[in-house]
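Mods, move this if it's the wrong board.
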Amino acid sequence: MKTYIPAQIYLYDYKSLFVRASVTIAISIIVYSALFGITW
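Not the wrong board. Structure tokens:
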């Protein structure tokens, strides 16, 4: 018998990963723009 992980968990995992990546990118952009603004 094969043990398989339901698709829901995979989707949830991908969703969580995507949200985390988006938040990280948003924070990095904010920090970069803040530094850029300070430089100017």
